Amino acid sequence: xxxxxxxxxxxxxxxxxxxxxxxxxxxxxxxxxxxxxxxxxxxxxxxxxxxxxxxxxxxxxxxxxxxxxxxxxxxxxxxxxxxxxxxxxxxxxxxxxxxxxxxxxxxxxxxxxxxxxxxxxxxxxxxxxxxxxxxxxxxxxxxxxxxxxxxxxxxxxxxxxxxxxxxxxxxxxxxxxxxxxxxxxxxxxxxxxxxxxxxxxxxxxxxxxxxxxxxxxxxxxxxxxxxxxxxxxxxxxxxxxxxxxxxxxxxxxxxxxxxxxxxxxxxxxxxxxxxxxxxxxxxxxxxxxxxxxxxxxxxxxxxxxxxxxxxxxxxxxxxxxxxxxxxxxxxxxxxxxxxxxxxxxxxxxxxxxxxxxxxxxxxxxxxxxxxxxxxxxxxxxxxxxxxxxxxxxxxxxxxxxxxxxxxxxxxxxxxxxxxxxxxxxxxxxxxxxxxxxxxxxxxxxxxxxxxxxxxxxxxxxxxxxxxxxxxxxxxxxxxxxxxxxxxxxxxxxxxxxxxxxxxxxxxxxxxxxxxxxxxxxxxxxxxxxxxxxxxxxxxxxxxxxxxxxxxxxxxxxxxxxxxxxxxxxxxxxxxxxxx
Amino acid sequence: xxxxxxxxxxxxxxxxxxxxxxxxxxxxxxxxxxxxxxxxxxxxxxxxxxxxxxxxxxxxxxxxxxxxxxxxxxxxxxxxxxxxxxxxxxxxxxxxxxxxxxxxxxxxxxxxxxxxxxxxxxxxxxxxxxxxxxxxxxxxxxxxxxxxxxxxxxxxxxxxxxxxxxxxxxxxxxxxxxxxxxxxxxxxxxxxxxxxxxxxxxxxxxxxxxxxxxxxxxxxxxxxxxxxxxxxxxxxxxxxxxxxxxxxxxxxxxxxxxxxxxxxxxxxxxxxxxxxxxxxxxxxxxxxxxxxxxxxxxxxxxxxxxxxxxxxxxxxxxxxxxxxxxxxxxxxxxxxxxxxxxxxxxxxxxxxxxxxxxxxxxxxxxxxxxxxxxxxxxxxxxxxxxxxxxxxxxxxxxxxxxxxxxxxxxxxxxxxxxxxxxxxxxxxxxxxxxxxxxxxxxxxxxxxxxxxxxxxxxxxxxxxxxxxxxxxxxxxxxxxxxxxxxxxxxxxxxxxxxxxxxxxxxxxxxxxxxxxxxxxxxxxxxxxxxxxxxxxxxxxxxxxxxxxxxxxxxxxxxxxxxxxxxxxxxxxxxxxxxx
Lengths: 579, 579
Fold this sequence. Notes:
Two copies of one chain form a homodimer.
Chain A: H1 2-6, H2 12-38, H3 43-54, H4 59-62, H5 64-70, H6 77-101, H7 104-110, H8 112-135, H9 137-140, H10 149-161, H11 165-174, H12 181-212, H13 217-252, H14 257-277, H15 281-293, H16 300-325, H17 334-358, H18 363-373, H19 378-389, H20 395-420, E1 437-440, H21 446-461, H22 465-478, E2 482-483, E3 487-488, E4 491-494, E5 501-511, E6 521-530, H23 535-547, H24 551-559, H25 563-572
Parallel strand pairs in A: 1-5, 3-6, 4-6
Antiparallel strand pairs in A: 2-3, 5-6
């Protein structure tokens, strides 16, 4: 979108080039983002990496001409304006989505514990960050004039205390802890963190603006007063009005189109208000997101449509664009990175640990909460980007913040797992190796079906098919494994099996596995678990049950012609992670 | 988004102003669009009207200062570039969505009839349009140099022959004919129309470019050859590759995010290719849309996420932007409007009529097909916009084309209804007047429940409640009206009732209406039909059954606290219109 605008006359060759640039940027950002996700790393890691590869750090080093051809933005005025504008719009949308994630009613339910964890979890990293920045401004990368030292230190303190709600939510879901007490405590503390942190950041922005403009302390107080008034009004009256308006819009307009437009219009208006107040437009979008996301009348589908579009189109271009504009090698400073990283992790983990202990949680739980809360992510990068564009921080510190944000996001999940001894929840797709798809079963006989699946399993496991077939058949005779809704899960434990594995067969005509509801089995999942991992059998059974919870998923899976289509059918009918 | 970019320095007051401008534009466009839809008119009518109200035609007339404050785009270079770019991106996205709607497999199924209707339905309006433009170029508004007369005449001919697939689909759904044979014939003919029409338009663009550039006939032939090659490759090899790639993406990436990004990247790349060939980028987006939309692996949810976002954010701003830039009063020319409108309607209706008769349809059906196909819409406006920006047509003709596009869209539905004697399908929401919501029923007795609903019905209809209650109770005693899934539909015909009406009651504890599946009724819909309209009873029963086809809709409706929330629950759980 941006680069389109860089062309002064928009002649065909410019349009061609700029569309290719956008396509390459978006494409690579998404591919690397997906790869990162495959290895359980935050998507933003891959997205920024795409920019690093295509920007001055790598492509610009290898082929300056190629980079200049694809991304000529750096050169001239129009390019800069367009880029600024796109960054502004993207940041507004990203903050809107972040705001939608905040659910104040969850916070109220958690009450005192959430307040304690979030307070100590903010105060300590803030203090450490403030101290670091005030004490060693040039070591970590102060970018402004000396009269900006106070805003700079405040900014670093706040950057240390804001968490990454979406990253944390994702980690909790992976560990199957999203709905647990501890999960809710972590989430609500993170929500308070974000709310307070962004208000604080708005005030820092006011400080910067008042420093930039000629206005004095009076102006500053007015700005801070108006900011707090805006937050107060939006989270009470505004929230109530949204809650009352949503049913009206849903009743009288196309759906979800009406709500979608309403959300956009509200975001733009509130962004305009906060911009007029003298803080940044993204703050208005965040607060309006909180106000709207809180309403139980906002349907899941609307939320998803908004966040899908923004997460998959705007965010990748935005983050890749960051990698594109900063030379990460040139501005990498080990000392700054180590200091920022150390303060970020220590401050958050220790802060939250004490808050949690204070709220009477066990020590182990408190450590887990500390590590969970230490995840930063996209938000810190947006924050840093704004601070850099205001000349408050240098590229050196920006690079350190980006690395810190990604590093903590990568660390939080494994650290929580380690402390709690929990494993990641696996889905059915994770148990299906190549060639685990047996296709249509011949005939309608249960024993024959098991034998056919055993043949497929033999190829994967290296165990002789007669041994597998016999073990499963013996188990089958003890108690039949038909499930309701045309599903069957013949299974066995095998001594010489190395990894838990599932083999899939289909039967259009159905095979009688003696299910409780009398249906014939159309999807047969043969579950094989190693004797050394007895718990894996139950986990696989749960994964199968979850995968086929809808009629739709069974129908799609039955129509699949190969393993890829089968996995696609499972993925596209998976329960939405939020609902 | 656009206007953001008009600010040369992006200082806070510019950002504030531009966000307000965008919010006002989007907000008004959506409100008027929804209003138009309420009166069964095309949304694009309301969207353009919003621009007309906010632009030079009205606001600029009343308060030039106000308009200049909100929309300063007309003044300076950056604004123009930004606007051009936004129009390009929006048009690409709109054409992508239009392409996604084209399903070639539907066309193959209809075979010869579709080919006949689409051929005569294109040739005749094309010939008339070409003749009009060639014969009276200045009367209708030729905008270019005299050597451009041939491209101009070709353009007008094509503008007369392209239909509006989304408008037609909507009309067919409203008339409950979407899945009928005639509906499929109309749709597939319209798809062929669009495909051929856009290829023709691409060739006209090539003609214009070769006229603009110094290149001669050789260049032109190369461009046309490349265009046809691109279409050929994309609709065979490209289509096959997409079909093979989609399951892989769905199996190995987040969903629907992965597919969403894939679609965007493909659109940008193909847009770049067609731009490089020398025709417009939107053509590439359209063809890629056709190639992708054809795959049965493209899930409905992905299609919907894309089209929701584009229809509700990009399209309204795009069309309102058109109203913003053209003074519709100043450039309104009655003769041009009448001529364009007459040729557009006559050409299409007569052309399709003969094609349909030729394909052995009855005369009445043939007229209906002619009227249905005569709907133009958004596409003609995009087409006109491009032609205007190339200096091929004057503002006068552009205004005439916009009016023709909207006028024919408004006419098509009622004309089809008239010819076929069909009425629009009404949904449950359409039968619920103000105060038709009785809320929670007291007690668990069937007769008492009917009496309570009769009280509510009495207030709406003016008929005494005892008369209503008695009629319904008598009917209830003949045969109980409990339906499966906790629903009951007590009903009666009343002599002195003017309009069919439904009254809603809820019961959390459930009331025994003796339903076949033994469930207690939780939602009770009392259906009252006038004796003079005996068919309305069955229509209302069907509307109730359709409204509560999912468990989710019943649960949401049961939780509704008033009529607005109830209507919102119905609207948000309605079956997707496409699926």
